[in-house]
Amino acid sequence: MAPQGAAIEPVVLDPPGHDCRGGWGHLGPMDFGIRVSNLEAAIGQLRAEGVEVAGPAETVDLGGGAEWRQVAFAEPDGNYVTLVEARF
What we know:
This protein has one helix and four strands; from the N terminus they run βαβββ. It has one helix at about 40-50; strands at about 30-35, 60-65, 65-75, 80-85. The two termini are about 30 Å apart.
């Protein structure tokens, strides 16, 4: 657990494939992001394992030469995961 008390606890839903996504304000899981050092390599690994990635990576210009690149995919239970590469 982090010093601030935050934690992530991955779980496997039963039955598999159960959709636990909700709208904003829903108390269940929605999505989360994972920072990666090489987004293109991570996308390649996912695709090699048969994971469908939602389109090409998006790039957000943060100004001053910094940018944020991201792409999303759904894990087996249907929850969205965003891979993020930050370049500063």
